[in-house]
Amino acid sequence: MSMTYPTISRNYRAAAAGQPAPLPDGLRCLVAYTIDFDGMGNEVGKGWAPFGAHSAGRYSSRRGVDRHLDMLQRLGIPATFFVPGYDAECSPEVVKRIAAHGNEIGAHGYVHEGTLLAPDEETRRLKLTHNILSDLLGQAPRGWRSPSGQKTRVTLPALHDLGYLYDSSDKDADSPYMLDLGEGRSMVEIPNNTYSLDDFPFFHFSMTPVSEVQDQWQAEFDARYAEGGFFMLTVHPRAGWGSGTPSRVAAVENVLRHIQKHRDVRFASLSEIQAWVASNAASHDEVRV
Amino acid sequence: MSQQAQLATCPAVIGVNIDVEILDHANAGKAGLFGRYSYGRYGVREGAWRMLELFAELGIQATFFAAPEDIARHPELLKALVDGGHEIAVRGTVCAQHGGDEMLDTLARDREAMRALVGTAPAGWRAMNGLVTQGTLPALARAGYGYDSTFQDDDVPYVMADKAGSTLVELPVFDYLTDALFFAQRHTHLRAAKAWREEADAQYRAGGYVNFTLHTRGDTGSGRLPQRRLVEAFLRELQGRPGLKFYRAMDLADAWRNAHAGREPYPFAPTPQI
């Protein structure tokens, strides 16, 4: 199979011709807070028993999700949760509670697949999780985030066929942009940055003290606010390398309260952001895949 | 006074993992327990004794998790642990690697071996390699254990039971309340202690409990003098917190079981559609 090179078909920064669309309503910063459920499915997908030292995924449904829902209610902000299908099967009531609190739910693999699958199997699993979440919530997910950041040439067309409007997996820009899938098909990409604006690397690879991670995320926001634009933070409600526990949620809450102190900032769900980008598609960058 | 009122507002446990020879032996192979494979031996020459002195100074009784083979090779350490009023629990293995064969028969065998050495049967178990299978917790209860302390899935202990009524308490651990994970990554001692302090503070404020995991080894453990000083400072801070009380793990498991009527099923992970 030949290598696929996505084409940057519109890039306002490189072209130095015109400006990308300003944020809606005169905002200085548009902020998304996203939470990847990542329960037992992460371990099960690796063929591990999700118990003992590998039981941190159980924390999501036992404690972490509800602690986040309480925090979101205190702060009065929406979040977008990405849920693997297997985790929804294991903890349906917890997943329904996320939606009942007014949060958006997107799909996040079946068992958090971090490896390449054969095209037929990849498509089957995308449909499987799509059906699990749709049946459970009575509403089809509109967004998808790749587990481990992995996608293939099959992924986006299959998601488009299922009715998805956006993907939130790529790492190639600071702002959301259009995806041209060919044959008149398009989606919105809402990129994230796992290295700097995600809890996993800090609490897994470097085991950084929580207060230092909080400082890092606040500095990230301060830099973004100084220039203006889009800011997205991603956490996981697990124990271990996630952010479901008291120390981590306290740090996240401090970061979010820090953001809320700034003027002209709005928290939005990823569907709201998708709608804003798609409504003015030509004013945003575009990548052809 | 109700049973629940007798529990401290913030229970705390110190679980010390002793890996004298058993761990290094598995890694050394034909090289033998020399050179870098002697870090475990440091624990029984220096580390454990330094910890015992510290716990005696602070008036804390801890829980030491060890393989029966290590305890059998070091009777002087066994005597010191017993004389100090500390608990001796089993550090065992039910599965050598992910997806490997389940060896549940080791649970009863280790319990009997430890009973023969100590004189009383151990109440607790912790997986040496962290691997726990779906069948392990019910098997622990059947073998007569009262608690496991390997999971990392809650802020407080919880009690499980099956239809037959056998119960087991889980005393969850916390990665940021552990020494070895930080020292294995070569974090400075001060940075590890900073993480412990922040984690314990959050647990205390949130109504959780503290389960502090230490090792006696000379590489990733806390038995060396500088780490011992940091551990002492941290433990003295904890002792100064109103409502925080140290328990041996088996005492907390008993108190928790008596104070909480709720029982939940043993952990279960359904077969995925893959």
Give structural notes.
The complex is a heterodimer of chains A (289) and B (274). In chain A, 41% of the residues lie in helices and 17% in strands. Chain A is built from eleven helices and eleven strands. In chain A, the strands form two sheets. In chain A, strands 1-11-7-8-6-5 form a six-stranded mixed sheet. In chain A, strands 2, 3, 4, 9 and 10 form a five-stranded parallel sheet that branches. In chain A, helix 3 runs parallel beside helix 10 (246-260). The mean pLDDT of chain A is 95. Chain B has one domain: TIM Barrel (Alpha-Beta Barrel), CATH 3.20.20. The mean pLDDT of chain B is 95. Chain B has eleven helices and nine strands. Chain A binds chain B through residues 40-41, 44-59, 62-63, 86, 89-90, 110-111, 125, 128, 203, 206-207, 209-211, 239-241, 245-247, 250, and chain B through 95, 98-99, 127, 129-134, 136-137, 150-155, 174-176, 181-182, 185, 187, 191, 194-195, 198-199, 201-203, 205-206, 208, 267, 269-270, 272-274.
| Percent in strands of chain A | 15-25%
CATH superfamily membership of chain B: Glycoside hydrolase/deacetylase
Write down the overall geometry of chain A.
globular
Radius of gyration of chain A: 18 Å
**CATH superfamily of chain A, please?**
Glycoside hydrolase/deacetylase
Low-confidence stretches of chain B: none
Number of strands of chain A: 11
CATH class of chain A: Alpha Beta
Structural class of chain B: alpha/beta
Overall helicity of chain B = 40-55%
Structural domain tally of chain B: 1
State the distance separating the first and last CA atoms of chain B: 53 Å
Number of helices of chain A: 11
State the helical fraction of chain A. 40-55%
Question: How many beta-strand segments of chain B?
Answer: 9
The total count of helices of chain B amounts to 11
What is the mean predicted local confidence, pLDDT of chain A? 95
